[in-house]
Amino acid sequence: MSEETIKKCPYCGSSDLVEDQEGYLICTQCGAIISDITFDTTYGQKPPGRTQTGTQYVKARHLIPASVVDVEEKRLISPDTSSKLKNFKTILDYCMQMLYHLGVTILDDQRKLLESYILKVLERSSKDGRQIRRTTTGALATALTHIFLRKIGKPKSLKVLQKLAIDKFRIVRNSRQISKALHFVELVLKDEVAKSRFATAEDFIYSIASELNTPSIIVRVAEAISKIAKVEKLTLGKAPNGIAAGALSVAYKYLEGRQIRSQLATIAGVSDVTIRYREMELEENPKIREFLRIVADYYRRQEYDKLHAFIDEYLEKLEKETEAETTTRPASS
After folding, report:
1. Which of 53, 96, 221, 269 could cross-link with 160 by S-S, CB 3.0 to 4.6 Å?
2. Phi and psi for 120 in degrees, rounded to 5?
3. CA distances from residue 4 to 19, 33, 37, 93, 116 in whole angstroms, order as listed
4. CA-wise closest residue to 158 among 146, 169, 150
5. What is the DSSP string of 31-47?
6. Which domain holds residue 276?
7. Is the pLDDT of residue 303 over 80?
8. Is the model's pLDDT at 306 over the cut of 50?
9. CATH number, domain with residue 78
């Protein structure tokens, strides 16, 4: 079985790696500490203690983020509680792997925020006498990643993260474990969750569009559709990722004549049927239908400046009408 020592950082892809006095490989680009990471490029049975990633196997237990060393030195986790430190390393490693796979880049202060979330969860688990097993760490990492992405304004649906954790990385057995972990994490981080802004349809539009490499004009039209839908109360009781997928699907259909429901369903974490229902609801609305007719006409004539000007004018008029309706509405006694 042939093994090849890693030449690039598994987080940022940089090849600028140096070895410190303790023998750890350190990425000079992102600061991650990488210890004895080897890749097995052969097929066959998964070796024990390794995580499958595509056609390769990675020794997941040797992925040590730089922040772990800082945590141990600052004694945020007591050095004598080695199990806590091990759980911290494992959960942070799983979170970073999921973020990397999702194409989400985070800044240093955002990484410290994620670390603080993990510490709070581990401290609460210790107080409650909860025993953290391998599958528990995977479920906690999935739940923490979900809340963290919502906090930094790059939301991903829980279904997408569940599929990643269960099918791709195989760090969780089933979705029930993730649901229980999410309930516990939300309980521990209730103050942080309360402060965080709930993800809107516009947030999901940007997130989905970035993975599809969607043209900016289609993103703009989809964003306008979601805003009109909100004013028309078409979004009440519906998940924002479903509204976002429906708006993007309608925009692609009217501007480029393409149907991309299956791609949208995979990225947004909703079913094809849900997207089809959202499309029908949006297209049946008279305001949205008229808006799409005018937008599609400008797009066919390639009058993109007029198209952008029309969207700006339309949304500004819509905002004024909403404000006027709010101010004239009688106050409830």
Report:
1. 269
2. -65, -40
3. 17, 18, 9, 21, 34
4. 146
5. --EE-S-EEE---SSPP
6. 201-328
7. yes
8. yes
9. 1.10.472.10
Q: By the 8 A CB rule, do 15 and 48 touch?
A: no
Cα within 13 Å of Cα(125), Cβ side: 22
Distance CA 173, CA 200 (A): 30
Rounded to whole angstroms, the Cα distance separating 175 from 165 reads 9
With respect to residue 41, please indicate whether it lies within any of the assigned structural domains. Answer: yes
Claim to verify: residue 152 and residue 234 sit in the same structural domain: no
| 8 Å CB contact between 151 and 181 | no
Alpha-carbon torsion, ordered 307, 312, 315, 316, to 10 deg: -150
Q: Position of tokens 């500490």?
A: 33
Q: What distance in Å separates the CA atoms of residue 88 and residue 123, rounded to the nearest whole number?
A: 10
> Containing H/E element for 224?
helix 216-231
Domain boundary among 195, 211, 230: 195
Q: Let me know if residue 176 belongs to a domain.
A: yes
Q: How confident is the model over 23-71, as pLDDT tens digits?
A: 556 666 665 656 543 333 333 344 444 444 433 333 333 344 444 434 3
- The partner residues of 57 in beta bridges, in order of sequence, read 40, 52
**Could you tell me if 174 and 113 lie in one domain?**
yes
Q: Cβ atoms within 10 A of the Cβ of 35, count?
A: 14
Confidence of residue 279 (pLDDT cuts 50, 70, 90): very high
At 326, list the tokens: 């709010």
Is 254:201 a contact under the CB 8 Å cutoff?
Answer: no
Same domain for 187 and 288? no
100 and 215 in a common domain: no
Q: How far is CA 110 from CA 78, 83, 157, 330, in A?
A: 23, 25, 20, 44
- Residues 231 and 320 placed together within one structural domain of the fold: yes
